[in-house]
Amino acid sequence: MPAESPQEIQYIVYTTDGRIMQWPAFGYDSLLRKLHFYGHTAKRIITLEEYEELQAEMEMAEQFLKREAERGLKETA
Fold first, then answer.
1. pTM for this predicted structure
2. Residue in 30, 50, 26, 46 with CA at minimum distance from that of residue 38
3. Which residue has the higher pLDDT, 5 or 32?
């Protein structure tokens, strides 16, 4: 049975110069080599899956704050 080829992982990279980029790599070391080759310095690295979870949490928090603000406006009226 042939060995499975490794799958690339999608990473979200926050750089020291303020960029947010999505980079595919076979692993963390491979990603760091690519970033170094292209002259980028990572400040924070997370997987695309982690990024999407954070985005969903932020969206839920925004919706909660919006509902609370609307409820506060109705109570003062």
1. 0.74
2. 30
3. 32
